[in-house]
């Protein structure tokens, strides 16, 4: 007998037709806005994790939003379809639709009532939380699918048949064990807290052993095999997150995890299950309690197992917090996989409530009408609030998203040597929609020694109504706040503003959530370089560093390499042949090898008797230009760097190597200053 099928589906064809209508409603609601621009954690899924080499995704967990299995699916989609918002959301959409189907099947098998099954599917179909996560490129709906699939597989082992015994016709084969392991492993591979579900199932088996010994004895081989399977799944979880992922990395991810106040947990959990409307949430909670009590009277074993599924994770969460194992209460969306079971109980409660109305008020029309009216008001209110929540979350909020796709089109049509500069606050969307092309342009600028137009990206989406550049316009200048660029650790001055003449600063494009400003290439003067031996004449190498640095020929090309140990600085002595305009911006490039503790810098400074005081210097696009963790994953020896700095009396190239091994290497040094010939 198939755990996912009905005994006689042809006998219930009319009910199935209603389900097809409900399923179609679920599909339509989830297709609305599914092509809108990616946002928030969706961008993290695609930008950070999805574009990582597939074999590296399971090894990296710097942030808890790496839903590993989902990230691998997104990575495969990106390789096939490229940056396509709809395609990236396909795994979440499929998980959402499958969970609507599986909750229908699961509710029918638990209650043997098609109306309850249709009600559970309908509640899932219109749930704004479920719609949101079905159209958000994250792994939450996948965990619902896996949880329902596992429960359907083991359901025949815990339900009683018509004669009061267990299901005799259902054979738990080795294939069943295999699928339980696969679904559990994929669930915890998606979100590690799915291990709470696996632990709850083990707790259910222990409960059966303690209180249903006869039932357990009849299936002792099956329950033993199921326990071993679940333990193997928990072991797989442990290996993934505590062996494959380094301890320090996991610790960092846990520290970055979302949290809530203890007093807020249950309110937020209710919102995760029922939506943001508190009164509707409490109403559904009442029906869920009624449904659970009714199920306890008719299918006690199943009811107890469901109770364990809900209670065991809560015990672990709060006990871990109270005894100090965990320092915070995680956001209740980690229990989103339980929503289908909650809605099954709620739908069952509605059916019990209606049945009681029929039996108790059947002969009293006034009471029947009054009760029906109260129930109808609640139902209409729920639908109206659901429609309102859908309007806000799926339409209004999506329409307010940044037009990142339009930004991608803009970036693609720029010249081959044009430069795009964005602060670290834009890293997620910028990496997905423009950074890869930027890296190509940076390498071309360094190779050719020519700088095209320069574009600054001002982002409002990160801080909503707050800009990451905080541009202040005066009569003659624009003052650009560089504090959201990463200040280089060698720079001493903490001032964060750069003055740029208003005459060279132009708003090129306005995409709503972000604006793009242009400085034409004609205003940038090439100040110096260090690419060939003759270039060294442009630099002053101070005597105290002569034994710490050396210039050598690079293998494979004609450029020279500056090698260094420990710390050094050299200054340029380029005879300037242009007048400065009233600005203070240097854009500096170099290529460096990657070693831990290597800190090259190229920026403005003030020289004082063979000492140097650095002016502010910032990393531009410091998440690297191809991947935030590219240094660790791509087999490259050299990496381009961009430094922005305020103008100083001299330009200085400096480096610090804070380790006892290796040699720092720099090549293809290039500098431009905002000036006027």
Outline the structure in words.
Helix 14 (265-274) packs across helix 15 (278-298) and helix 15 packs across helix 16 (300-322). The model is unreliable at 161-166 (pLDDT under 50). The chain is elongated, with a radius of gyration of 31 Å. Strands 7, 11, 13, 14, 16, 19, 20 and 22 form an 8-stranded antiparallel β-sheet that branches. Strands 12-15-21-17-18 form a 5-stranded antiparallel β-sheet, with no helix packed on it. A hairpin with a 3-residue loop joins strand 9 and strand 10 (514-519). By secondary structure, the protein is an alpha+beta fold. The protein has 21 helices and 22 strands.
List keywords for this structure.
elongated; five-stranded antiparallel sheet; alpha+beta; 17% strand; eight-stranded antiparallel sheet; single chain; 677 residues
Portion in beta strands: 15-25%
Shape: elongated
Give the C-alpha Rg.
31 Å
Report low-confidence residues grouped into runs of 5 or more.
Answer: 161-166
Total helical elements: 21
Number of strands: 22
- The percentage helix is 40-55%
Task: Briefly characterize the structure.
With 677 residues, the chain is an alpha+beta fold.
Task: Show the helix and strand layout.
Layout: H1 13-31, H2 41-50, H3 68-81, H4 85-88, H5 90-111, H6 114-126, H7 128-134, H8 140-158, H9 174-190, H10 195-211, H11 213-218, H12 220-244, H13 247-256, E1 259-260, H14 265-274, H15 278-298, H16 300-322, E2 329-330, H17 339-361, H18 365-399, H19 404-412, E3 419-422, H20 427-448, E4 454-459, E5 472-473, E6 477-481, E7 486-487, E8 497-501, E9 506-510, E10 514-519, E11 524-530, E12 539-541, E13 549-553, E14 560-564, E15 567-572, E16 586-593, E17 598-608, E18 611-614, E19 617-619, H21 630-633, E20 638-645, E21 650-657, E22 664-674
Helix pairs in contact: 1-5, 1-6, 2-3, 2-20, 3-9, 5-6, 5-7, 5-8, 5-17, 6-17, 8-9, 9-12, 10-12, 10-16, 14-15, 15-16, 15-17, 17-18, 19-20
């Amino acid at each position: 007998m198939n755990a996912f099928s009905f005994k006689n589906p042809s006998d219930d064809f009319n009910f199935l037709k209603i389900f097809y209508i409900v399923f179609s409603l679920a599909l339509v609601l989830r297709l609305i806005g599914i092509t809108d621009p990616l946002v928030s954690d969706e961008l993290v899924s695609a930008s950070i994790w999805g574009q990582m080499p597939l074999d590296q995704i399971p090894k990296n967990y710097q942030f808890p939003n790496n839903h590993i299995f989902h990230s691998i699916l997104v990575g495969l989609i990106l390789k096939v379809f490229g940056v396509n918002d709809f395609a990236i959301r396909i795994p979440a959409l499929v998980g959402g639709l499958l969970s609507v189907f599986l909750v229908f099947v699961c509710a029918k098998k638990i209650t043997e009532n098609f109306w309850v099954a249709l009600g559970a599917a309908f509640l899932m179909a219109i749930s704004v939380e479920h719609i949101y996560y079905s159209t958000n490129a994250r792994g939450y709906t996948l965990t619902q699918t896996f949880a329902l699939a596992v429960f359907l597989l083991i359901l025949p082992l815990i339900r009683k048949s018509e004669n009061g015994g267990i299901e005799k016709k259902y054979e738990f084969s080795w294939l069943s064990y295999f699928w339980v392991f696969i679904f559990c492993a994929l669930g915890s591979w998606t979100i590690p807290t799915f291990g709470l579900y696996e632990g709850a199932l083990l707790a259910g088996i222990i409960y059966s052993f303690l209180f249903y010994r006869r039932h357990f004895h009849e299936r002792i081989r099956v329950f033993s095999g199921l326990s071993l399977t679940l333990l193997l799944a928990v072991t797989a979880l442990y290996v993934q997150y505590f062996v494959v992922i380094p301890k320090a990395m996991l610790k960092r991810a846990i520290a970055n995890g979302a949290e809530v106040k203890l007093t807020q947990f249950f309110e937020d959990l209710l919102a995760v299950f029922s939506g943001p409307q508190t009164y509707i949430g409490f109403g559904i909670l009442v029906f869920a309690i009624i449904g659970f009590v009714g199920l306890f009277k008719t299918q006690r074993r199943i009811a107890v197992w469901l109770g364990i599924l809900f209670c065991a994770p809560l015990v672990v969460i709060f006990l871990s917090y109270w005894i100090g194992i965990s320092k915070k209460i995680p956001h209740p969306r980690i229990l989103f996989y339980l929503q289908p079971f909650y809605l099954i109980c709620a739908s069952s409660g509605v059916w019990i409530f209606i049945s009681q109305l029929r039996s108790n008020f059947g002969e009293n029309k006034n009471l029947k009408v009054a009760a029906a009216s109260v129930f109808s008001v609640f139902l209409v209110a729920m639908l109206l609030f659901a429609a309102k929540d859908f309007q806000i979350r799926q339409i209004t909020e999506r329409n307010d998203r940044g037009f990142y796709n339009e930004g991608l089109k803009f970036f693609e049509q720029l010249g081959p040597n044009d430069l795009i500069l964005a602060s670290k606050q834009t890293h997620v969307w910028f990496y997905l929609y423009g950074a890869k092309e930027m890296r190509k342009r940076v390498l071309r600028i360094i190779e050719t020694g020519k700088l095209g137009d320069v574009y600054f990206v001002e982002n409002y989406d990160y801080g909503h109504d707050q800009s990451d550049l905080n541009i202040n316009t005066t009569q003659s200048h624009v003052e650009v706040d560089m504090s959201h660029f990463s200040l280089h650790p060698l720079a001493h001055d903490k001032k964060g503003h750069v003055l740029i003449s208003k005459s060279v600063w132009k708003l090129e494009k306005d995409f709503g959530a972000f604006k793009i400003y242009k400085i034409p290439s004609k205003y940038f003067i090439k100040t110096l370089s260090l690419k060939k031996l003759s270039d060294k004449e442009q630099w002053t190498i101070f005597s105290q560093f002569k034994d710490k640095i050396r210039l050598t020929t690079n293998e494979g090309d004609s450029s020279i390499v500056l090698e260094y140990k420990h710390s050094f600085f050299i200054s340029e002595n380029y005879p300037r042949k242009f007048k400065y305009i009233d600005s203070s911006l240097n854009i500096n490039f170099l290529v460096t090898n990657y070693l831990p503790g290597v800190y090259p810098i190229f920026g403005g400074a003030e020289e004082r008797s063979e000492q140097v005081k650095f002016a502010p210097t910032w990393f531009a696009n410091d998440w690297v230009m191809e991947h935030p963790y590219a240094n660790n994953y791509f087999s490259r020896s050299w990496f381009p760097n961009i430094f922005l700095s305020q103008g100083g009396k001299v330009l200085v190239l400096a480096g610090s190597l804070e380790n006892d091994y290796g040699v720092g290497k720099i090549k293809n040094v290039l500098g431009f200053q905002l000036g006027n010939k």
